[in-house]
Structures
1.
Amino acid sequence: MSPATPDPKNGGAALELLVHGVGGATPADMLDDPRTVRVTGDRTAAVFRRRDDVDAEEHPERHAEGPVPEAYCWSNLTSGNGTRALWLLLLPFMVANLAHWMRPPTEGRPRLLRLYGVLVRLVALTLTVLLTAAACEVALDLTAWQCAGSAGCAGHRSWLGFLSAERAGWWSQPGRRLALAALVPAALVGLLWYLSNRTWSAYEAQRPPTGYDADPDAEPAPAPSAGGDTEAADTTTPAPATPVELRPALGRPGFWYGRRLVARLRAAHTAAGFLTVAAVLAAAAAGHDHRSGAGGTQELLGRLLQLALGVLAFVVLWVVCRRGRSEHRLDLRIERALVSWLPATALLLLALTAVHTGWSRPDWTSAGTLPGTSLFGVLTLAQGGLVVALAAVALLLHSPRRDPRTALYGLGGPATAMLACALGGVMSGGVAQRVADWLDGAGTPGTGDGPITGPPVLLSWQASVIPVLLLLLLAPSALLVARTVLAGRRLRPVVDAAYRQTNPDRLRTDQIATSRARAALTDSAPVLIGVVSGATLLLGAASVAGAWASGNVPGRAFDGAHPAVASVATAAQSLGSWMIGFGFLLFVTLGRRAYKDRSARRTIGILWDVGTFWPRAAHPFAPPCYAERAVPDLSWRMSSWTRQTGGRLVISGHSQGSVLAAAAVWQLPPATRGRVALLTYGSPLERLYGRWFPAYFGPEALRGLHRTVHCWSNLYRATDPIGGPVRVPAEGDRPDVDRPELLDPVAYGRTREHPLPEPILGHSDYQADPAFAAARAALLDRLPPALPRQRHNTATAQGSSGRSSG
């Protein structure tokens, strides 16, 4: 059975594929009808239609006045599950992963591109080691070494009684206490591996279409030039010598399929976590054996274990540095041997080290802090050095083709990497400080007036610089507030002129002008992030210097300073300790609340909608990328529908949905793109993604999208804090992508068409503006008419479309 013959007036079947933005939406809201039917998909992400439109392709005459609306709902990919609220604790990993995608655009320079990716992956690796070291600090140093070794601390906590040195039990020896406490950080690493593996199976395992799967006659895409890839191309499989089509990065067959890389990185980071725990145990045992002059088999075994740990650590670094993403083809391989034996070998070494550390040493007593606490200083220096090197590489990449719209002059990636390190330091230091305060009772950790010595000196210095950082932020924040107020005043005549008001209402004008000025604050985000990142780098260096000057001796963090300075510094340390502890507890509280509160879960989900668009290319423990499911869904739907019906299709994306829509269009084969129009509104494509991710959404990429898709229109408002113009000019017979700026509100005061006051909509309800329907109709008119050919029954091809209703 074939559909009715296309009507020349309306060009045959036409479809509008709606894609919602951040925060999610229901099919009923998107389609403005409570009776909805799932056409294809599952409970995680699916395409819906109105019940009356299920067989619309067979009766195109019913929709002569407009396209058939169809809604793609993807909110359950991010904010639908309460357990995902706990991903807030993985925030530093997610931020580090974003830094990978913020590199400047470049042509050629494959070595610099590869170096940029390697540096970001190394920063991500230090975050895993830092998190594990913080867990070791809490479980091994503060609890098993200091508190259990002190009668004043362990005596007040019954749950530590069996570890107390005063009871002289089997577990009272320091080595055995440490071996038992090592289960806590080892379990944390195991939990991160489990979460990463589970999400890897659910997200990265979704095999995407290459764009050519829907077009059997097309040739596979070749490997692009090295300058267009995230790193040097994978040379294990030769690419075609003659390029059939130069595809942008987001249109490459393997861009949305990073399964192989995530598996490699997961194995390396898991092994690094286990090795960190083993290194802390080995350092403690080696320190005692060296001081006591034990010698013999015990010391030899310790040296062999240290050598094995060093060799495996080198292997982990090699795995992380050796290979990045391979995007020019769909890489289906998984290095099973590497993925399995690397974490298993590290876990085996951890077990052997724990046995060696727990070996009977009757003369071993715990005093002061656990040996090896200098690891925090080494990590801080390594992170600072890596960020500085990353900044140098970014400047070299940015220098040949500078774009004034690029955030922070190409330094967005290094600044974001610095923020990830700062978040990791704040979270790890906050946990250590809070646990130390709790264990020390009435005493103050690090001052010697309590039963325990306290956390490493560096953590005390890092806590003391938090209030300083907040004070430094007051100046740019106050400046932005003043600029916003002044901008609101300057915009008053602009608003009056836009609405042609000769006798304006001052209150109404102020409301609109203030909304416009506040929306413009989004463009000042690079200034704040640059200030925070730069201040964090300098204050981190000051913390390391301060810890080094005090000899890394707890209780002497501010020795040698003037009494007044020392008093202020001590107060800042205490305040900073409480602040970072409060921030960590706030994260946990939000996570717990999101289990039961749907609105809180939706709010937290918005963070991941924005932050997890990009695949996991640097950190495997980051929250998974929802676009690896959503983009293939959209590209498959557009390809299959246009092939089955030969009709016209408008993909209509709002906010983050416009980014998904653009990425899906890039994935389409050329024949399909010729029948697709793109309508974006409230879109952050240029304002956010173009500025912060210039290699993928910069001016060249957006102009290429304009040339690639049949036609494209973008709607925006001056009151929208997220969306904005895409700044793609007319080219040949293709008009400007940006339509004239929409007035918001649509009416200044009461009119016959709007008898009640119209609200200022900002980022929402673009479809309520009459300009939306006009832009959609103009796009449909520019598309070619439906192809008059025989096709299969569309309702049958959609596969039992009435199987689920809303």
Note: The mean pLDDT is 82.
2.
Amino acid sequence: MMKKIPGSLLYRYLCVFIAINLLCCNASFSQELPFRNAALTSEARAKDLISRMTLQEKVLLMQDQSPAIPRLGIKKFNWWSEALHGLANNNGVTVFPEPIGMAASFNDSLVQIIFDAVSDETRARYHETIRNGGENKRFLSLSVWTPNVNIFRDPRWGRGQETYGEDPYLTTRMGVSVVKGLQGPPNAKYRKLLACAKHYAVHSGPEWSRHELNLNAVKPRDLWETYLPAFKALVQDADVRQVMCAYQRLDDEPCCANNRLLQNILREQWGFKHLVVSDCGAITDFYTSHKVSSTPSHAAAKGVLAGTDVECVWEGYAYANLPDAVKKGLINEKKIDESLLRVLIGRFELGEMDPDGIVPWAATPASVINSKKHQQLALDMARQSMTLLQNNNNLLPLSRSAKKIAVIGPNADNEPMLWGNYNGTPVSTVTILKGIQSKLKPGNVFYNKATDLVENKVTETYFSKLLHEGKKGFKATYWNNKERSGQPAITVQVTEPLKLTTAGQHEFASGVKLEGFSALYEAEFTAPETEEVVFKGGATGEFELLVNGQSLVKYTNWRTVPARFPYKVERGKTYKIEIRFAQSNNWQANLEIDFGKENPIDFGLLIDQLKGIDVVVYAGGLSTLLEGEEMPVSFPGFKGGDRTDIELPEVQRNCLKALKAAGKKVIFVNCSGSAIALTPETESCDAILQAWYGGQSGGQAVADVLFGDHNPSGKLPVTFYRNTKQLPDNFEDYSLKGKTYRFMNDALFPFGYGLSYTRFAIGEGRLSSSFIKQNDQLTLTVPVSNNGKRAGTEVLQVYIRRTNDTEGPLKTMRAFKKIELMAGKSANAVLSLPYNSFEFYGEQQLEMKVIPGQYEILYGTSSADKDLRKLTVSVQ
């Protein structure tokens, strides 16, 4: 017999029953929604989802950090991750050489393999994090804003290291390989990652004026022949899924609101169907810097109408004002839907909204991260990037039987320098010092830093003179919030110069979180003399240095770099020193501070220490503490991350001169992301090796070359000028006249140049025909011989010039091929020259076109005239 249920309890049962049925119905209904159907096309799914969203929800998904929309089951998504030469801003990943170094390899096949490895590591780290309860956050996503295919037109640009050099063809070959490696097979159902061609377009510094710069004198020929070819190829040949518009204006219109760039060229002429993302803060620049908009609403409408689909900002989205812009009639919702369609198609193509079980890339195991295979790839590329510029009297390679050699210089034992910029943090790094030590018996390598990168003085630290309540050092108080409020997480005494980082999952102190924390460092200093002391250091995060309550420096940037902050003190007077710090956004936190008095460098003492040592390896150059993106650098010769001159810093030049004067055999290992004017150094150095920023295995690669375990084959992807005077005064002038190998022929070391430990000979080339017609292809066959005693690799380069083109480039690369030959062997290099190899800008036609006439085909081992042979061909 059924038991009677009280009325109130029956009501509760009914409510539960109805709720369960509603949940089941909703779940069933959700499964049947078209946007949930993985069998449909990404476009069909995106259109269905858009039809179910409110305007406010749509706008949220056009922000680079897009929040979740629970009612539709849409997860949080972040568009901004970096993979410039490995997964950036992550720990324990493989760090490959900086792109400018990869360009020196002239090996686009290896580049594609490397970026396939990078995409594996990105997929593996992303899914591992999500499965462990983490989230899709900035710098951990499946959208990566790589590659940078801007042309490195001027060596003063600090971000040129991120590019593949000054040549449009080399940049194109490398960029296409990057995209193919990152995005995966074109016929796969899901994209491995979404790559991004940046920064579109005509963008290569200066850093200090990029938010206000207006380029209204760029010649059409420079635009089409130099600044646009790589972008066109990435769109049409690599099917890149994202294009990032640049900060500056082109012909009075910001690039992210430039209809000519985004509509006429990108979409109508090139057929780009995918999404455009703004550089970070480029939309807000419309009203804060460019003054083409008066309000955030107007700026947002202007960006979307031009075709910028996703906005990136540091804080305060202009796109959040799109509903207001609709109300004001500045834009209609249909235009917003058009942009959002491209955004959502990208997300569906990643499989980000589908179960992991049907997305093959989701099964990528975490074991691929920094695997032995990837470590070997990093070493192989580092070796191939090494570019030997000078080797007087065949000083190199060195003998392993050397009794003792000296390794000195600011980059000799510097791990972060090797990582370059936009980098991850590797598990381990082989510095140049460690690499050389691995080649010789213990005790046979003398090491001394000798100089700093820039400064002519060394700092005698006063850190030991700091006191707090009678205890030596700083009192350091940490909070697990950014406001330095509430109960501290821990208070400790710091007795050594501050050198703290969260890289590698390191805490600033026990119990302090890796993100969202703050710190206060307090101490007193009693001056022993009346003198000037300097604080040296910098931070990644929010940073302020105060003395007696006076703020000496305050940074709120997303990153800062080491600099010096002088302060005069009086003997016997006590000064209160405070450092306030907070971790910023999703960036790794770093803090380095020391202070003391500066003393002149005594090279005489260094020379005394080198008695009995004949060979000195000086590892110097630059680092990403000096050249980079929008940096507040306060050293002579540097401004905003760019350089104001291209000479080697004076202190390093003086050190090299002193070593030479002392009779030493000097090997200069130059680490930099850009060309250095090495005119004096060719006299003071016996050998010069351009080592770039070689990644986690960069030091091993340097040592392998110095001791002959690897025969160098790198070629310069940029021109090395004789001095700064060869450059135009106006860095903001985007005219190419007198710049790059294509418009000057008086370089110290030309584009395409690089020595080997063996001797190659180039024979007479043969063309398959003396003429070429549309849809035809020429074949160039060139005999190459290794006449030396070692196996080696040569890069055969092919340049083309239109004979009667007085306004055009002196020569332009159109093909290259790497050839590996054993000693005494010969082979034919066979290169294809399709009809469009002869395409140049027609001043009368106002477009890129193959113009009939006579052309010169130049082939050889560098772009220098003396290294090239010539053939002529008739183009019909």
Note: Confidence is low (pLDDT under 50) at residues 1-30.
3.
Amino acid sequence: MSNVDSFGAKGVLDVNGKEYEIFRLNAVEGIDRLPYSLKVLLENLLRTEDGANITADHINALANWDASAEPSVEIQFTPARVIMQDFTGVPCIVDLATMREAVKDLGGDPTRVNPLAPAEMVIDHSVQIDVFGNSGALERNMEIEYERNGERYQFLRWGQTAFDDFKVVPPGTGIVHQVNIEYLARTVMTREVNGKLRAYPDTCVGTDSHTTMVNGLGVLGWGVGGIEAEAAMLGQPVSMLIPRVVGFKLTGSIPAGATATDVVLTITEMLRKHGVVGKFVEFYGEGVAEVPLANRATIGNMSPEFGSTAAMFPIDDVTIDYLRLTGRSDENLALVEAYAKEQGLWHDSSRELDFSEKLELDLSTVVPSIAGPKRPQDRIELTDAKEQFRKDIHNYTGSDEDTAAMGRPSKQIPVSMADGRQFELDHGAVSIASITSCTNTSNPSVMLAAALLARNAVKAGLKTKPWVKTSIAPGSKVVTDYYEKSGLTPFLEELGFYIVGYGCATCIGNSGPLETEISEAVQANDLSVTAVLSGNRNFEGRINPDVKMNYLASPPLVIAYALAGSMDFDFENDALGKNEAGEDIFLKDIWPNPTEVQQVIDSSIDKAMFTKGYEGVFEGDDRWKSLNTPAGNTFEWDEKSTYVRKPPYFEGMKAQPDPVQDISGARVLLKLGDSVTTDHISPAGSFKSDTPAGKYLLENGVDRKDFNSYGSRRGNHEVMIRGTFANIRIKNELLDGVEGGFTRDFTQEGAPQAYVYDAAQNYQAAGTPLVVLAGLEYGTGSSRDWAAKGTALLGVKAVIARSYERIHRSNLIGMGVLPLQFPEGESAETLGLTGTETFAVSGVTELNNGTTPKTVKVTAVAEDGSEKSFDAVVRIDTPGEADYYRNGGILQYVLRQISAA
């Protein structure tokens, strides 16, 4: 904690007779012009100044921030807390448990490995939609979830008892980011320090990229890799450059036909186009007061989709009203308001702040939209959706000719279901319609709009098409309460939209299988069917292995597409069906009136729902309480477990790291194109029996039906290494036209095609280091620690890409993998690299002198002996990252610090 106060900032704030120790921002001159988000960082530095890692120079650099300059000053940010979900959180706790043993082996005290900041986990990623479309779906899916994940849950319950300041929100409660804004977020934190109650801004890092949802509540936070989150839990600050801040001015208000989702898709497209990777976005202007908190959270949530680190809204009356509605105490409300006003953190739209760049959106210009078929930023206006689908379908149907009658490729395949349903499936059929994910299921305006649209559709006599897998996975139980109170549940259920679970579900790839007959028809005829979901991610191969095209849409549009049954549909001109009088019914006839939506919100949501919903939230239900939980400071690993295994990171680790070395004789494991996501590198969804991961589980006595998903197996490195680069849609350019987790194995005669894992094992046996070649935006998407861990454990020593997404680059360093960048304007193509060469990287050893080289020399020797060399940019961006790399990774660095203390 802080032991220096160069600016005399420490003072007292009296709120209704209660005293709090605070660090006053006005102790530093000239900071009124700073954006709100940078003031939060400034307070963080004032409070943690120690004269060594955090100095008066750092504070002055932030106070004198030059909005127009490129980021160059590194600061250390100490988040107030860490938030996790179970997919990314389980490996964190596995690693902490392993670190306890490693500290013991190095002669230290294992109980010193403990979260030093509050760490909270919400189990929300494990529920799959195995059962849908009936009233028993929720209960049965939860039963299956516990059957599949019992081992992981026992382990997490052990963690809850073994580690101080670590709490778990059990399954079936809600989605992590919604639980965060409704319950866990403090907005202003309090903690006793040296006998005094200290107040400071709530800040957090999370092991899920959509942690930024909490930005809507005025809380600065963002997603980090699980590797960085572990370090933050153990008291390591997050190393960052003082960022550029993009001011985003909001004016006007949303028009009648549009929703918060449409606003978000519009902002996502605008900011992706503008370029905000590595920057903060901050919303300002008169329009901010017009944006309800749920809409702010929806916008904040999509920050990873437009690429910014954070997407902040300042604290104002709207924030306080939401905190009150969600059951926060009067004492907390009074503190948040008094603290924000005292510190100049309260929104004042009349004050013009300094921003690096500015954009503006008049909300009244927003139109109904969807995004797809494979990226969140590819927005399509709803009026153009049919036409755009007809253009895009050609990329997914191979050589299928256009059918003159249809005006697009068409294959009408008859399907007979066991229950007597009969229909024809064609390209473009909507096979999944799911109201899911954190982005929208926290937002009453779109959730109730969906329910009212369902009511209007039922009253008009419309029905969902029989091939659509329908589902609702709300963000919290409060959604169910207001659906019940408003009397709208029966209409949703009438259309097949039953609640299937409280969790991410379809958005994370837990859509569950399509019905057998539909799945077989799709596979046998290579049909390009579609999914429509109210989520934030629609990357290739993510949603369901049978579904090639995925579209993001608002919850009411998800229902509309379930009624339409096909993406080849124009809502303006194509009728959804006929009413009893035989009249055509169009979308505009059943679209809910925004005034009615607001009336239903006002009459069916109250504070009592939140206080009741979160009572005893950490205790869990009988299923959770009855789990058999191990005890003790260190975990007893079960050698037979296929879910939780002790990882090999610290085996043979010495008290001092070996010097770093240059790379020679390296082979290319994969040569990849642009926009390769962490989903491509480390998929979260299901996998088949003939994959390396499937074979491993079969060999270990696991039945096919119990495979579960990659995401749920993240506590087992054996599964995850085999799943690295195993996405069914990844395209390795070492092979011609082959999709999936394959490469060429140059250890074998003729370099035949092999699974990536099998080839990597052969390279390891031969002592051959590996490199990966990639294009632009390498590692976009979720903050998958396994995308970096798997890369490292396969034996990859360096990645050479044209550019990186922020989290994945730092994760690679956190695992001891060197991120290099092609020279500006160059790529594997321009340099004539085929990936068949042998690579050497020299100049890395300069890191042993305590400095980081700006470039290193890469030499590629072709099979005919010809050489090409170029200077690759070293993307170790801060001194802290250099320390991690020298130690072989961030965990090794932290472990050595703890053991030496």
Note: The longest helix spans residues 137-162.
